[in-house]
Write a structure and sequence with these properties.
The chain has 272 residues and is mainly alpha-helical. 68% of the residues lie in helices and 7% in strands. α4 packs across α7 and α6 packs antiparallel against α8.
Length: 272
């Protein structure tokens, strides 16, 4: 029991430390976006149905929860990456131990975290689209699909051509997040995410390009890469960063406030 407990303790504190890092990086966004949504409704002078407000805030909170999960898995990816790159430990067993016919220990561990990252960020996008759809059009969908998202949003704008907020939000999504019609010659981040997630979930395991680099201790690390980026860079640059920009770019359209950098302060979006 002693050795088993010590291993479990190491696993727990490793995961918990990743959570603390995630909290440092993501809590600020979480608090600001929820505060802005709540202040938006306060500024409506009680002209909005209370049940509608509650559902909007619940859907937004769920989308932010999914963002948190994606960020948490990314912290684990970076933790593995930075350890392998900078450790002075003897990691020859990790380099040489074959887990499956296609992966050694390092490649297997990174592939697990990539798989979870793709699932989490794709789930986040579905939840955020569900929130946008309800907040803008009033239409609630239990199980989101991009086909239904485009159909309902486009139909709403056709019937409400005066709704400039809806037009700006939909144009942003179409041009900066996910194309309405697939264009493989011009992928944006949502297209790439959907393509990779659907492929590895339903079709075939991703076959990365392996780039070998020597770490600071002289061990050769075989880094799996996609489009020239290791998995940490891929998820950070394409998914988490762009999800964050989506929140901040849409902020003034959705809530009527400019995004404010710096730490969160309660009441920071109140009218003065």
């Amino acid at each position: 029991m002693g050795a088993f407990y010590r291993e479990n303790t190491s696993i727990f504190y490793g995961l918990y430390n990743a959570l603390l890092r995630t909290q440092d990086s993501s809590q600020n966004l979480y608090q600001k976006v929820l505060e802005a949504q709540q202040q938006f409704f306060i500024n409506q002078n009680e002209n909005t149905d209370g049940k509608f407000q509650d559902t909007v805030c619940e859907l937004l909170d769920e989308a932010l929860h999914k963002f948190y999960i994606g960020s948490y898995i990314l912290e684990q990816l970076w933790g593995v990456h930075d350890f392998l790159k900078n450790t002075n430990d003897d990691i020859s067993q990790l380099v040489n131990e074959q887990i499956t016919s296609r992966s050694n220990s390092i490649e297997f561990l990174l592939s697990i975290l990539l798989d979870q990252s793709l699932y989490s960020w794709r789930s986040f996008l579905d939840y955020y689209f569900k929130y946008l759809l309800f907040f803008i059009t009033g239409k609630y969908i239990l199980t989101m699909s991009t086909k239904e998202f485009w159909k309902i949003f486009n139909g709403y704008i056709e019937n409400n051509p005066e709704d400039e907020k809806a037009k700006m939000v939909l144009n942003y999504i179409k041009n900066k997040v996910l194309h309405e019609k697939e264009d493989r010659s011009n992928l944006i981040w949502g297209d790439l995410l959907k393509s990779l997630r659907d492929k590895t979930t339903h079709q075939k395991l991703i076959k990365p390009t392996v780039i070998e680099n020597e770490n600071r201790s002289g061990f050769i690390i075989s880094w799996p890469t996609i489009a020239g980026q290791n998995y940490s860079e891929l998820v950070q640059c394409n998914f988490e960063n762009n999800a964050f920009y989506m929140f901040t770019d849409l902020f003034p359209f959705l809530y009527g406030f400019d995004w404010v950098s710096g730490p969160f302060r309660s009441g920071m979006f109140k009218k003065t």
